[in-house]
Task: structure prediction
Amino acid sequence: MQNITLDTITEAVINHGDRGKSHPRLYEIYTSLVRYLHDFVREVKLTESELQQGRNFLNQASHHTQEIPSGEIHLLTDLLGISELVELLNDAHRGTESNLEGPLYVPNAPERQMGDRLGIDPEGDTLFLSGRVLDLNGQPIANALIDVWQPNSKGLYDIQDPSQPLGNFRGRFKTNKSGTYRFETVVPLGYKVPSSGPCGEVLRLLGRHPWRGAHIHFKLNAPEYTPLTTQTFIAGDPHLDSDTTFAVRSAIVQLQKHEALDELKAHNQSKPFYTTEFDFVLKPATL
Result:
């Protein structure tokens, strides 16, 4: 590969190797990525100093931080809309829509019983959330595992907030024979994505806000059904139309406020509380 020029370098990079004999799908992705990246560099006439700034940004984004212990690369793909685009491309549009997992999921959440409280937050507004897990024909799915995680009423997850115990507002529930789930939580607050690192600096430079619409995360698994990761959003949140990860779709729940004395007494509450329902529909694993 002597005498590399502007006209030959892209093909030289693409053709360096066995041209997909070992890993055809990887080569397909690699080829397209190289073409787009080279075209991008040509289009913007990238300078050496700008390239170094980009390298520095990626290096910083890969470092672990207190806000995001695994680094900011996951956050970066969310903020660029790439994560949600992949969801949209791969969602089969049958059953409940899939949505982003986000960078703050923690596996092996505490196992909880039907009706249990998800977390401790004395200042939060109590929310009773319930619904069913159904198949495409509307039949209940028993023993479906529902993994739930959310921020508290201040918009903070347990792993970001030292004042919360680990596992706070995280839990795993199983549906009963009628496919029902039910738990007590608090109304989550919309929050700013972690902004102290390089991704936050890019948002500031672009004049973009870091706010997410208020939401609750779910992962659902049941034998013989396709696993589902999704989010439900809280109607009325001021950032539903400008969520910084572009993740708001149709799974928006309306909260009903309860403040009558008989309702407070029936639910063992001393101040107004909220209820809402949401049914999940799972696709068979064969689809």
